[in-house]
Amino acid sequence: MSKPILYDFFATWCGPCRIQSPIIHKIKETLADKVDVQLVDVDEHPDLANKYRISVVPTLIIEKDGNVVERREGVTDEVTLIALLEPLY
Q1: Catalytic residue status for 17
Q2: Can you give the pLDDT of all 89 residues of the chain as single tens digits?
Q3: Please, how many CA atoms are within 13 Å of residue 75, restricted to the half-sphere of its CB?
């Protein structure tokens, strides 16, 4: 089975994204062998943002085997994020 992918859609000008960022970086560091974390700046990658219909940043999307299994808009805390990811790896 493949690792789940966590997409963090953010923008450099976004205040809540700056709150989300350290949480995502900690997840990326601690779960590197279990989760593929992808940081996506919506201003630099508008095609990918459009593909996932991103209208709010931060938005977190979790994919497993090519399917979106979770979508969260706004800041998501570390405990919740780990709870969402654990069953997938």
Answers
A1: yes
A2: 689 999 999 999 999 999 999 999 999 999 999 999 999 999 999 999 999 999 999 999 999 999 999 999 999 999 999 999 999 99
A3: 12
Dihedral sign of CA atoms 34, 24, 49, 84 in order = positive
pTM, two decimal places: 0.94
9 is catalytic: no
Alpha-helical (H) ranges within 1-89 are 15-30, 46-51, 78-85
Task: State the catalytic residue, choosing from 6, 17, 40, 42.
Answer: 17
Cβ-proximal residues to 75 (8 Å cutoff; 6+ apart), any chain? 16, 19, 20, 23, 58
Q: Which domains does the chain possess?
A: 5-33+40-76 (3.40.30.10)
